[in-house]
Amino acid sequence: MAYRVKIIAVGRIKQRFYKEAINEYLKRLKPFCKVLVNEVEEVGDPLKEGDNIFRAIRGDCSFIALDEKGRLLSSLDFSKELESIFLHGREPVFVLGGVKGLSEEVKRKAIDVWSLSRLTFTHELARLILVEQIYRAFKVMRGEPYHY
Amino acid sequence: MAYRVKIIAVGRIKQRFYKEAINEYLKRLKPFCKVLVNEVEEVGDPLKEGDNIFRAIRGDCSFIALDEKGRLLSSLDFSKELESIFLHGREPVFVLGGVKGLSEEVKRKAIDVWSLSRLTFTHELARLILVEQIYRAFKVMRGEPYHY
User: Under DSSP, is residue B119 helix (H, G, I), strand (E, B) or coil?
Assistant: First the structure.
């Protein structure tokens, strides 16, 4: 089992219940894939945060930016897209912005911009939704039931 | 302060971190409005759950059903819609389905069907997102900052 998923996120998870919730999904994901979470410092300026994001991305030039105005996917689409990335021998890299979102440059350099919802979420809730959807995606790929 | 929001939800919140997260937003909402949460039993059959939902709704004939295929709103739209309901002297009533979603009858009888996302969520995560958005809506209505 060599699947890996990378999440580059601006800002830390501060609220205890969000930490526990996110860790629960990361734990459930362990049999399926290794999830690397790389937190970059939140400075409140998407431009400066962008520089740190690019440093964290390094060689992974094909990353997916998450932005509320991006492409809306169903959970099934999300799963199929992940599967397709794995089938091409690549690793999905997700980039999640901070309080003020991602810079235009980050969105422009992403291979795709996906939206979790048209609603605005705190970055903590967005990270929880992302890990829950990655877990759901693996359950779908493996044809396992998941009581959604 | 007489604002009230009602949530009729199929199923209980079992995971502790979801309970804590939802309670945190309900607590933050206290200065703004009274949120009544009415949980109806999850039986795994949307038709039967629908009967219980209609019993719980009683006189509140103008409820909003939540369904992933419904109308996608931004957080600003969400806030404006809530404000408009209050301006008309009414109380927003949200209906959230269980594992298998809501019956066609519930969706047909709703005054509107809203979608939190095209993604599928567990009913626990959906409830968390709903209360977070209600909290966000009040912050927007009052012109207060909210570090999203």
Answer: coil
Q: Which residue of A has its CA nearest to B76?
A: A119
The structural architecture, per CATH, of the domain A4-141 is 3-Layer(aba) Sandwich (3.40)
User: Of A69, A78, A118, A127, which to mutate for an interface test with B (greatest number of B Cβ within 10 Å)?
Assistant: A118
pTM of the full predicted structure? 0.95
State which residue of chain A sits closest to B77, comparing Cα positions. Answer: A119
Contact A24 B17 (CB under 8 A): yes
Q: Which of A73, A99, A128 sits opposite B148 (nearest CB)?
A: A99
Taking the CA of residue B135 as centre, how many other CA atoms within 13 Å lie in the half-sphere pointing to its CB? 24
Taking contacts as CB-CB distances below 8 angstroms, the residues of chain A near B42 are none
Backbone angles phi, psi at B51, to 5 degrees: -60, -45
DSSP letters for chain A: ---EEEEEEES---SHHHHHHHHHHHHHHTTT-EEEEEEE---S-HHHHHHHHHHHHTT----EEEEEEEEE--HHHHHHHHHHHHHTT---EEEE-BTTB--HHHHHHSSEEEES-SS---HHHHHHHHHHHHHHHHHHHTT-----
CB within 8 Å: A119 and B122: no
In tens, the pLDDT along A10-61 reads: 999 999 999 999 999 999 999 999 999 999 999 999 999 999 999 999 876 7
